[in-house]
Design a protein that fits this description.
Layout (H helix, E strand, L loop, with lengths): L4 H21 L8 H10 L1 H36 L1 H13 L5 H12 L3 H25 L3 H9 L4 H38 L5 H10 L3 H29 L1 H5 L1
Length: about 250
C-alpha cells in the first residue's frame, strides 16, 4: 500500500478539485462531478459491466495478441537481416503517420461493424511500440558478449536464446505497458466510429442524449481497466525478469 500512497493522495486531490469545479460550474452536461459519474456507473452497472465492457475488452485483448505476434516477428526478422530491416523499418514508421480516424471508417467499410474492423484499428495502434522496443532490445546486447559465445562454439540460435532473448525481455514488457493503454484507446475510438456494443459506442450514445455523466462513465471504466492490465503486466514482469531486480 505504501507503494501507491503518493498516487492515491494525488488522485484524491485531483478529484476534490474536480468535484469543486463541477459544483461551481453547475452544468452536468459540460462537466459532471465525480460523484455524479459514480452514481451513473452504479445505476447502469449491469449494462456497462456485463455488455459493453466485455465487448471492449475482447477487442483490446485480441488486438494486443495479434500485435504481440506481429510485432515480435517483425522485430526478430529485422534483427536477423539488415536487408529486411532496411525494407521494413520505413514501412513500420509510415503506418503511424496515417490518422486512425481516417482508416477506421475504411476498415468498417471493408469488414462491416463486426469485431474485426475494430481489432484492426487496435493492431495498427499497438504493434508499433512492440516492434520498435523489441527490436531495440535485441540490438542492446554487447558485441563482446556475442564474440565470447561464438568463441565457445555457440550457434546463432544459441546466441539468440541465451543472450538476445533475455536482453529483450525488459524492452518487451515496457512495450506492452505502452501498448495496453493504446489498445484501450484504439478499441474505444473504433467503437465510437461504428459499433453495436462497447464502451466507446455507449459513450457516443450518451453524448447524443447530452448526458455528461453517461459520457464520462465509460471513460472512467476504460481508465481503470487499463490500470489493472498494466499492473498485471508489472506483476508478470517482476516474476519473469527477476534478474533485473537483482542487478
Amino acid at each position: 500500500m505504501k507503494r501507491y500512497r503518493s498516487s492515491i493522495i494525488v488522485a484524491l486531490l485531483f478529484f476534490a478539485i474536480w468535484q469543486a469545479l463541477a459544483m461551481y460550474i453547475d452544468a452536468m452536461y459540460i462537466l459532471p462531478s465525480p460523484t455524479a459519474i459514480l452514481e451513473k456507473i452504479w445505476e447502469l452497472k449491469d449494462i456497462l459491466f456485463l455488455v459493453h465492457l466485455p465487448a471492449t475488452l475482447l477487442i483490446t485483448i485480441e488486438g494486443l495478441l495479434i500485435s504481440i505476434v506481429l510485432g515480435v516477428v517483425l522485430a526478430v526478422a529485422m534483427n536477423i537481416s539488415e536487408r529486411i530491416q532496411r525494407a521494413l523499418y520505413p514501412i513500420v514508421i509510415v503506418t503511424q503517420t496515417v490518422p486512425i480516424t481516417a482508416l477506421a471508417p475504411i476498415f468498417i467499410l471493408w469488414f462491416g461493424y463486426g469485431i474485426w474492423s475494430k481489432v484492426l484499428v487496435t493492431v495498427l495502434i499497438t504493434f508499433f511500440p512492440i516492434t520498435i522496443n523489441v527490436y531495440d532490445g535485441l540490438r542492446s546486447t554487447r558485441k563482446d558478449m556475442e564474440e565470447i559465445l561464438i568463441t565457445y562454439g555457440a550457434s546463432k540460435k544459441d546466441i539468440f536464446m541465451k543472450l538476445k532473448f533475455p536482453a529483450s525481455l525488459p524492452y518487451f514488457f515496457s512495450a506492452l505497458k505502452m501498448a495496453v493503454p493504446l489498445s484501450v484507446v484504439g478499441a474505444a475510438v473504433s467503437e465510437w466510429l461504428g459499433a453495436e456494443a462497447g464502451l466507446g459506442y455507449f459513450s457516443k450514445r450518451m453524448m447524443t442524449q447530452m448526458d455528461g455523466a453517461g459520457v464520462f462513465a465509460p471513460i472512467v471504466i476504460l481508465s481503470l481497466a487499463a490500470l489493472i492490465l498494466v499492473e498485471i503486466l508489472n506483476v508478470l514482469e517482476n516474476k519473469i525478469v527477476k534478474w533485473r531486480n537483482e542487478v
